Amino acid sequence: MKAEHYVGGVFRSDGASFPLIDPANGAELGTVPEATRETVDDAVVAAKAALKGAWGAAGAEERAAAMRRIADGIQARFEEFVEAEVADTGRPRAFAETVDVPRAAGNFRAYADLLYGRPERAYTTRIPGWSTGTGEALSYTVRRPLGVVAIISPWNLPLLLSTWKIAPALACGNTVVVKPSEETPSTATLLARVIDEAGVPDGVFNLVHGHGAGAAGEFLTGHPGVDAIAFTGESATGTAIMRNAAAHVTPVSFELGGKNPALVFADADLDAAVDGTVRSSFTHSGQICLCTERVYVERPVFDEFVERLAARAKELDGYGPMISAEHRDKVLSYYRLAKEEGATVVAGGGAPTFGDARDGGFYVEPTVLTGLPETARTVREEIFGPVCHVAPFDAEDEAVDLANDSPYGLASTIWTTNLSRAHRVAPRIETGIVWVNCWNLRDLRTPFGGVKASGIGREGGEYSLDFFSEPVNVCIQI
To answer: What letter does residue 322 receive in the DSSP assignment?
Structure first.
């Protein structure tokens, strides 16, 4: 899939180009156009114009129908989306087939259903007349779109996380300018093809490619014509975007990084806890914001848990590469740092060799560490790789304190067969999401997001509609 901009209903490739690299083998897949400031400006202008056209006049039923056509288009091109996602990210094909592409189509269907089934949620809330002292008045609230929404999506789940924002933004009647990660442009371009074929009016969906600082990302988030920004990515980038947004007091929705804890109590089903931690620490080679990097295990089962987790990590096969050589080198630098800080490496700790084309790719070993103090950088800082540090605890309160002692607060996992403990501990964990005896079990209707350095706001179901629409109160004197 050739990466192209999509601006005002037209595919174009203006701007200098940069190479797109296959992380699985280091080969060049093609080139990507770098959007100029003029490209971004054209996209915002086209999005503004579309608000005044047919899309701006469209009702809930029309928007829902368009979104269902988009979902159908994704399904019709299922294999193309899978191939593009695997090529850009290097992830196992099964992950793209069962998660990325189905959930992307599902996002459009879910918000079409929510919009069509409850149009009043996106439009009105009525309060019966009440006395003002000078007569009766009727108040009601209408929800209107924010306008032009800038959507910045990451490289780790590029299709899924972009549609997670595009779908509710369109459901509320906004227009969008999307900038995917420069590392993963292909499925975004393919999505533009689907939206074009679905007959969505020109300018409703716009796509620009390029880098962040001093490039397309900065041009877009600092543009005075942008009415809201929705971003998923690392916390440092979120801070930079917030500075840009502050100049125009642009509202933001951020889903940022995490240093997610897991608590394993002695009464846990240890088989389930080990299986779950393998998934939560090593899925997509740890390159998911929800992945577990800190594991706290009650002391009576600590040694057995570490032994079993390390054995499973050593057996892992078929895991994907880091997204780039730069990110591989970052993760390996943390592996070296962990040793310098005094960690015991019980599994992994380096870069594998395969004896085939993968040796040109950007792989690191799934790694299990123990023995570090809570003050260690390896324990405090997000690594975003297939690594976790395991430490013991002796009491429930201690476990909660350890989990909460972090600048991040995205997700956490509790493993226990004690129902009272689960209900007692879960609300005390300072994260936006708490899973009990499971991990990454997601219902699209539930709130998704973090606290502290892990984000601002919530996404999912009606929570997304709250961000992507503006409530306006109307009061009529009767």
So the answer is: P
pTM, entire model: 0.94
Catalytic pick among 182, 183, 255, 298? 255
**Token code pair at residue 347:** 């599994």
pLDDT at 134: 67
Phi first, then psi: give them for residue 217, nearest 5 degrees: -60, -45
- The torsion region of residue 164 among left (phi > 0), alpha (psi -120 to 50) and beta comes to alpha
Q: Which of 91, 25, 451 is nearest to 255 (CA)?
A: 451
> Closest by alpha carbon to 298, among 435, 423, 417, 424?
417
Which three-class secondary structure string do you get for 408-459? Answer: EECEEEEECCCHHHHHHHHHHCCCCEEEECCCCCCCCCCCECCEECCEECCE
Q: Which residues contact 412 (CB under 8 A, 6 or more apart)?
A: 260, 261, 262, 263, 403, 429, 431, 433, 434, 435
Token pair for residue 28?
Answer: 């060049």
Domains of the chain: 5-256+454-477 (3.40.605.10), 261-436 (3.40.309.10)
Q: What residues contact 52, with CB distance under 8 A and at least 6 apart? A: none
Look-up: residue for tokens 């069509």? 116
183 as an active site residue: the answer is no
Work out the percent of the chain whose per-residue pLDDT is above 90: 90
Q: Which two tokens stand for residue 86?
A: 């695997």
Query: Across residues 389-412, what is the average pLDDT?
Result: 98
Structure confidence by residue, pLDDT tens digits, 443-457: 888 999 999 999 999
DSSP states of 258-271: --EEEEE-TTS-HH
Dihedral angle computed from the Cα positions of residues 44, 48, 53 and 59, in that order, rounded to the nearest 10 degrees: 100
Rounded to whole angstroms, the Cα distance separating 153 from 151 reads 6
CA–CA separation, 407 and 404 (whole Å): 8
